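haha ok so turns out i had the wrong file open the whole time. this is the CORRECT one, sorry everyone. sequence first:
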Amino acid sequence: MTTPARSLSTLLHGIIDYAGLFPPAALDMGRAVESFNRARMGEQAWMLGRFVCPASKLRAFSQAGAPMMPGTFATSGYREMADAGEPWRVSVLVDGSLDEALDTIDQFNAHHEREENGLARADTLEMKVTSAGQIDPAVEKIPEDVFPFFEIPLGADCRGFVAALAGEPVGAKIRTGGLTPDAFPQLQHVAEFIHACAVADVRFKATAGLHHPVRGTFNLTYEPNCARGVMLGFLNLFLAAAMVRAERVPISRTMEILENQDASKFKFADEFVSFGGSIVETAKVARARESFALSFGSCSFDEPVADLRTLGLL
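then structure:
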């Protein structure tokens, strides 16, 4: 077992929002909750972020997760277990109306702020928008204690969407893959998105197609004889974002990082991480992760961890 370089652990700290309910894993609620809890108790728990749950399934998540959440044992004779770990954090995906999602979040948070019900907090929200004009009305409704990400379409010029987010306590979300090859965006559009967010000082998260650390050709689902496609690596994406944020590298350099399929070109040391001649200090990586490139959703936690081990990085 390799001890990760400090720059790598900084880059990956809390980076994976677990989305086991979603394809291609598409687990049932019980199995997804068990997988999340197992990851929380595992050796690489430092890489884990939130549980991603559709608003329509939040009550089912509450019922399935309560026996495993911190605090649940307080009324069962095991008082010492009540403080075992931080409250579970949840990111709620709007899959109906925003008003309904916000009501469900309010009920969930009120229920799970009490120790006897299991401690959890839905503190982020993810909402797809198709026009920049949808953003301001939604922001007005969302309470200050819930941080929203607005999933914006890639392919056209994204700057209008990003501009609509600038100056607000909100983030952008990009979809970086899917179940078919045509679901993956052009890398040029991903690079343009990163630069637009950096210029506008807008935080972002990504989702889909990021199971593997380094860009390459992989199976797109877990089904036999499934389609294969070129998937963007999460090291590519988040190192590129750190370089853009900290060092203002040009878009041509961003493209080189995103396109790279050679893991050996990523050099992780305690004090810095480098790609070719571009270097970013670990302290700047930390600032980029805290205030710019926040996380990515993945239906698997084990697969990214296993790949990092195979590369000798963990």
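The radius of gyration is 19 Å.
again sry for the mixup
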